[in-house]
């Protein structure tokens, strides 16, 4: 499940719970492979945080995964079947909850302090941190979806539907760094 990169690795899905570092890992991997990096959040979150309708999201992702080579990051179950059917490799960032929560808190506060634009003009808002609704508070979202995501991706490792995929599951950030150094 871990170890050196797969020779010929050209279509990679990077998954993991919110705050695990999917986008950072995927961008680095895509640069090293010399292939496009596609961040599902950037497609899904339209201006004003308006979600892209599922049928349009599936249409756009179908076009993306028709390409010869790419690294896609994101956990959207609406399009997972499309991405994984076309992928040759899945990287699962399955870090301990403490690591993920430290990352998501630091990332969120840093983005807010810098007023960093994420996608399509959207920025994280201070008022969202006051919300107890995980749909609005990214830190609570990460906490509430952590177990579900870990279970989902652990089950996928042995699911015959995905037997064509090479899985790499990293439980410590150092494993991911080592993997990237071998690409």
Q: Would you give an account of this structure?
A:
With 183 residues, the protein is of the alpha/beta class. It has one domain (11-181): Rossmann fold (3-Layer(aba) Sandwich). It is 46% helix and 15% strand. It contains 7 helices and 7 strands, in the order E-H-E-H-E-E-H-E-H-E-H-H-E-H. Strand 3 and strand 4 form a beta hairpin. The longest helix has 19 residues, at 138-156.
Reconstruct the topology from this structure:
Elements: E1 11-16, H1 22-33, E2 37-39, H2 40-44, E3 45-46, E4 50-51, H3 54-65, E5 70-73, H4 77-86, E6 89-93, H5 97-114, H6 138-156, E7 166-170, H7 173-181
What oligomeric state best describes the polypeptide chains here? single chain
What is the number of helical segments per DSSP (H or I, 4+ residues)?
A: 7
Strand order of the largest sheet: 2-5-1-6-7
- Find the CATH topology: Rossmann fold
What is the CATH top level name?
A: Alpha Beta
Overall pLDDT metric = 92
Total discrete domains: 1
Low-confidence stretches: none
Q: What would you call the shape?
A: globular
- Helix and strand run: EHEHEEHEHEHHEH
Kindly state the percentage of residues in helix: 40-55%
The secondary-structure class comes to: alpha/beta
Rg, alpha carbons: 16 Å
Q: Major sheet: size, sense and barrel closure?
A: 5 strands, parallel
| Distance, first to last CA | 16 Å
CATH architecture descriptor name: 3-Layer(aba) Sandwich
Strand content: 5-15%
CATH superfamily: P-loop containing nucleotide triphosphate hydrolases
Number of strands: 7
């Amino acid at each position: 499940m871990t170890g050196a990169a797969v020779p010929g690795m050209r279509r990679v899905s990077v998954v993991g719970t919110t705050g695990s570092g999917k986008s950072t890992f995927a961008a680095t991997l895509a640069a090293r492979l010399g292939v496009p990096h596609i961040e599902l959040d950037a497609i899904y979150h339209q201006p004003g945080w308006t979600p892209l309708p599922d049928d349009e999201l599936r249409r756009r992702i179908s076009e993306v995964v028709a390409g010869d080579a790419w690294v896609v990051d994101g956990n959207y179950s609406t399009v997972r079947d499309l991405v994984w059917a076309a992928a040759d490799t899945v990287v699962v960032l399955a870090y301990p909850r403490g690591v993920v929560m430290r990352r998501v808190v630091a990332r969120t506060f840093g983005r807010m302090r810098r007023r960093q634009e994420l996608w399509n003009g959207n920025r994280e808002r201070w008022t969202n941190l006051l919300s107890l609704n995980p749909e609005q508070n990214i830190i609570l979202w990460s906490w509430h979806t952590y177990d579900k995501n870990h279970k989902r991706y652990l089950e996928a490792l042995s699911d015959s539907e995905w037997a064509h995929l090479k899985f790499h599951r990293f439980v410590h950030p150092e494993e991911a760094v080592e993997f990237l150094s071998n690409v």
